Amino acid sequence: MAWIALFVAGLFEVVWAYFMKMSDGFSRPIPTVATFAFMFVSFGLLGWAMKQLPLGTSYMVWTGIGAVGAFIVGIVMLGESASAMRIAAALLIVAGIAMMKLATP
User: Fold this and answer.
1) TM spans, by residue (predicted)?
2) Angle between the N-to-C axes of helices 55-78 and 2-22, in degrees from 0 to 180, rounded to the nearest 10
């Protein structure tokens, strides 16, 4: 169950990062409120998952899901670059997450 909570926390990290971008430096009220609401849920789930999972594993998986997810959202929704080098970097992050998951008892 902790792994599921951690995965969902990572997804919420992607959502709050997107709304942070949409907030235009916290100058738009609705995206700003959404940023902090999703951030609260993301941190809450991360904290709950850390009760059962190691700190390093939890944090790496959470930030990895957030980084790769934000990368994908940036490409799909915001028209950001999808160069071969950026895709390779994202794949290396995914490989690191998978290795950390396999290395955690």
Assistant:
1) 33-50, 59-78, 84-103
2) 40
Picking from 16, 56, 20, 51, the residue whose alpha carbon sits closest to that of residue 37 is 16
pLDDT digits (tens, 9 = 90+) for 25-55: 999 999 999 999 999 999 999 999 999 999 9
pTM score, whole prediction: 0.88
Q: Closest Cα partner for 9 from 90, 64, 71?
A: 64
Q: How deeply is 80 buried, as exposed, middle or buried, from its count of CB atoms within 10 A (0-12, 13-18, 19+)?
A: middle
Give the per-residue SS3 of 10-56: HHHHHHHHHHHHHCCCCCCHHHHHHHHHHHHHHHHHHHHHHCCCCHH
User: 101: exposed, middle or buried (C-beta count within 10 Å: 0-12, 13-18, 19+)?
Assistant: middle
